[in-house]
Write a structure and sequence with these properties.
Elements (H helix, E strand, L loop, with lengths): L2 H16 L7 H9 L5 E7 L5 E4 L11 E2 L4 H8 L3 E2 L5 E7 L2 E9 L9 H21 L5 H5 L7 H9 L4 E3 L3 E8 L7 E8 L2 E9 L3 H20 L4 H15 L6 E9 L4 E7 L5 E4 L2 E5 L4 E2 L12 E4 L5 E5 L1 H4 L11 H13 L4 H16 L7 E8 L10
Parallel strand pairs: 12-15
Antiparallel strand pairs: 1-2, 1-6, 2-3, 4-5, 5-6, 7-8, 8-18, 9-10, 10-11, 11-12, 12-16, 13-14, 13-17, 17-18
Helix pairs in contact: 1-2, 1-4, 6-7, 7-8, 10-11
């Protein structure tokens, strides 16, 4: 059997094993499928903070220590989404589901095989892609994979919210979307959503009034109402009205959600948007912040007030759109100074000019906000970065 055929057989073996595979047995199943190739792997998953890569335990094998993302070669493999051989003879391979970064594999090749060998690399990339799909599909069936990603208990509000959100990264050949939320263990009223239907990317960022579980419940109803309206074929402006009605039907205490709702035509770049009392998104072009989307204003969702007009612009190829909640720009340091929009835009410009993938740009922006505020505030801080570019997907896939 040729080396390529042996890798195909291993992939088929793992697919066969995956149908009735308990979540906590994934690492053992991967190595069982690779055994005929004399290849051994350790599977790492990124923690919810996106600071460490944590190994999935496997019975009969010692569990290695977590790996730091910012100061290690494996972390570089994760951030750049590029396989790299290490000086210790291992091959490090990113694990993604589609384009959503999940972790990486530490591959020990057969004796005498160079970790930079092309056949080994291609086989491991194919195996890592399959592992990404299997890992995602097994998440709902047990707690082991969730526990592996956590270093602390998660608040009820965050537990609820994370179950409602789409993957943090999504890309096609024309557009890439990435998002990040903090504090990941206690996030409350912030949320985001997206859906690509034909040529239209529907996108939303939301911030429920208040904190903790009450804010999460408000945002959850708003998110569900928004999806129900969108899936019924409702136009952009009417989706806000649907959220208004849903919130008023459940509460009479004046609670509300600020939000930006957008429809992007991924073929033409036509962008229509409604801003319901939320910080204005920023357009980034050729590494520079060129404008804020100040149109399309209407009252926050849930208030019985008249709606405004729909704003519209046309993006240029390569443009990026940065959305954020007020917890980002209003984060304060120990002296009480705000992080501010100019600082956010400047950091975003720097990271974009360095050629980082969109999810890595957001991860570094989020780290900068967290370091700036320290323990002075724990307000939710959420960001979404949209890139309208045929090159977008190339930066977020292996």
């Amino acid at each position: 059997m040729s080396a390529t055929a042996a890798w195909h057989a291993a992939l088929a073996d793992l697919i066969s094993r995956s149908h009735r595979l308990p979540p906590d047995r994934l690492p053992a199943a991967v190595n069982a499928a690779l055994r005929p190739l004399d290849v051994t792997v350790t599977t790492y998953v990124v923690d919810v903070e996106q600071e460490l890569l944590r190994p999935l335990p496997e019975p009969g094998r010692p569990t290695p220590d977590p790996l730091p993302i910012d100061t290690s070669l494996p972390g570089r493999v994760y951030t750049e989404v590029r396989a790299r051989p290490g000086q210790d003879g291992r091959l490090w391979v990113p694990v993604v589901n589609g384009t959503d970064r999940l972790g990486l594999l530490a591959v020990v090749p057969p004796a005498g095989v160079d970790p930079a060998d092309g056949t080994l690399r291609e086989g491991c990339l194919a195996m890592a892609g399959l592992i990404g799909h299997v890992l995602t599909s097994k998440l709902p069936y047990g707690d082991a994979l969730h526990q592996a990603r956590r270093a602390a208990p998660m608040a009820v509000s965050a537990e609820l919210l994370w179950q409602l959100l789409p993957p943090l990264t999504f890309a096609t050949d024309r557009v890439a979307v990435s998002a990040i939320l903090e504090p990941c263990y206690a996030v409350g009223g912030d949320a985001f959503d997206y859906a690509l239907n034909g040529e239209t990317l529907a996108l939303a960022i939301l911030d429920g009034v208040g904190h903790g579980l009450p804010a999460t419940l408000t945002t959850s109803v708003a998110l569900a109402a928004l999806r129900a309206a969108r899936r019924s074929g409702t136009e952009l402006a009417e989706r806000g009205a649907a959220v208004d009605a849903a919130l008023r039907s459940q509460w009479t205490d004046g609670r509300f959600v600020t939000a930006v709702l957008l429809d992007l035509d991924v073929h033409s770049g036509r962008l229509r948007y409604v801003n319901a009392g939320h910080p204005a998104p920023v357009v980034l072009r050729r590494g520079r912040a060129v404008r804020a989307l100040t149109g399309g204003r209407r009252p926050p969702l849930g208030l019985n007030l008249p709606s405004g007009e729909v704003g519209e612009i046309r993006l240029e190829p390569g443009d990026r759109l940065l959305l954020h909640t007020d917890g980002v720009t209003e984060a304060r340091d120990a002296a009480g100074e705000e992080f501010g929009l100019p600082r956010l835009a400047d950091l975003a410009e720097r990271h974009i000019r360095s050629g980082l993938p969109a999810p890595e740009t957001l991860r570094r922006l989020s780290r900068a906000v967290a370091e700036y505020r320290g323990t002075a505030s724990r307000d939710d801080a959420t960001m979404v970065l949209v890139e309208w570019s045929e090159r977008a997907a190339a930066r977020v896939e292996p």
